[in-house]
Amino acid sequence: MSSSATPDEHDIDTASKDVIKINIPPRFYLVPGAAFMVGTTIGLMRGSRDASLRFLAENAHRPPTTVQGWYFYNKTKNYKVIYGGMKGAAAEASKLSAVALGWVGIEEGLERVGWGQFSEVGAGLGTAGMFSAVYRLPWKTTQRTLVLGLVMGGGLKLMGWGRQQLEEKAQALGESRSD
To answer: pTM for this structure?
Structure first.
C-alpha cells in the first residue's frame, strides 16, 4: 500500500463521502401525519356507527329467539362494526391526509416560485378547492369552503406576522437591556 492510511480508515472516508443527506422540513410529515390520525379517529367513529345502524336495520325483521342466537347475533354485529370502522378509518384518513399533503405542497410550491407572502392564503384557497373536489361538495358549499380557506389562510398569515412582530420586539427589548 502506498498510502499511510489503513484499509479501515480508507473505507470510512469513502463511506462518509457516499452518504446522501436529505433535509425534509418537519411540516412535510407532521401536518399529513396529524391529518392521518384525525382522519383515522373520525373515520373509525363514523364507519362503526354506520355499520352498527346498517346491521340493526338489516336484521330488525328477524331477531334471534334463543340464547345461542343472541350470542351469534351480537358476535356478528361486533365483527361487522369493527370492519365498518376500519373501512371508514382508512377512507377518511387517506382523504384527509391527501388534503393536508396538498396544503403543504401548495404552500411550499408558492414559496419556491417566489410568492412566499401569499403562500398561506394560496394554500388555504387551494386546499379548500381540493377538499371540495375530494368530498364532491355542491357549488354553494364549495363557495363557502373557499371563503373558509381564504379566512384560514389569512388567519395563518396574520398569526405569522404577529409572531414576527413579537420576536422583533423581544429582540429589541433584549438588546436595550444589555446596553
So the answer is: 0.73
